[in-house]
């Protein structure tokens, strides 16, 4: 099976398309090794034309770490933070009885990385396209390796040892909707510059949606620095835009990529199935 795999770069920035493999079928050890190497090398992999159920997708997620297949609770009621094991989630604007069947239903969504609000963030995220609008709804991926490499040495030295607070509201799509002081929101502390455990490369670790403050410096100065870094990391030369097709399965590395979503027609349906991948020893709850 390994010999049939065709891996083609999707852009000069990041990403590769992987063909010649049927993910409904069992995968041998050598093939898994090839896929994991490609994952580290390209940070984003797309497997087009895959017909997969949820069980197939979870099995695929387990190739890259611990696929999160528990019972997932995402919303909070009556001001109480709710937690649960991480499991399947539908990213969809489809509504039943006037209520979304999934999460993050409509409109644009600012750049973020899944799991930054956890002490042990998600290693990767998988998304499988079930329904796609005729236009828009693209997922943008920003390469944080390249963003770090392009910084002046003076800035690299300034931020090398800084620590941030990352906060997330599961229903937020814009920075203004997250309130750092809100005690019910999950939050975590992370280094602003991280070294990837598999590639050994340094990258920025911050996002406009989730990084709320830099802990060691005054709020005004910290906010100014964050805004400059957000703008820097979101420059077009660091970004690949994925235009979805039905039956695309993708996986991306949350340790070195941010992602965002473009707007799409409100009267068209969009639905993707999501499983995250955690580090093997990470807690199973938020």
> What's the number of helices?
5
So what's the overall shape? globular
Radius of gyration: 18 Å
The ordered H/E elements are EEHEHEEEEEEEHHEEEEEHEEEE
Question: Care to count the β-strands?
Answer: 19
Strand content: 25-35%
- Uncertain segments: 74-83
Q: Give the mean pLDDT.
A: 88
Structural category: alpha+beta
> Biggest β-sheet: count, sense, barrel?
8 strands, mixed
N-to-C span: 37 Å
Percent helix, as a range, is: 10-25%
Spell out the key features of this protein:
alpha+beta, single chain, eight-stranded mixed sheet, 286 residues
Structure overview:
The structure is a single chain. The chain has 286 residues and is α+β, with helices and mostly antiparallel strands. It is 17% helix and 28% strand. The chain has five helices and 19 strands. The longest helix is centred in the C-terminal third of the chain and has 15 residues, at 219-233.
Question: What's a quick, concise take on this entry?
Answer:
The chain has 286 residues and is an alpha+beta fold. The protein has helices spanning 29-42, 54-61, 144-149, 153-159, 219-233; strands at 6-9, 16-19, 44-47, 66-67, 89-92, 95-96, 99-100, 109-112, 124-131, 139-143, 163-167, 187-191, 193-195, 202-204, 211-214, 239-242, 249-253, 257-261, 271-278.
Topology:
Layout: E1 6-9, E2 16-19, H1 29-42, E3 44-47, H2 54-61, E4 66-67, E5 89-92, E6 95-96, E7 99-100, E8 109-112, E9 124-131, E10 139-143, H3 144-149, H4 153-159, E11 163-167, E12 187-191, E13 193-195, E14 202-204, E15 211-214, H5 219-233, E16 239-242, E17 249-253, E18 257-261, E19 271-278
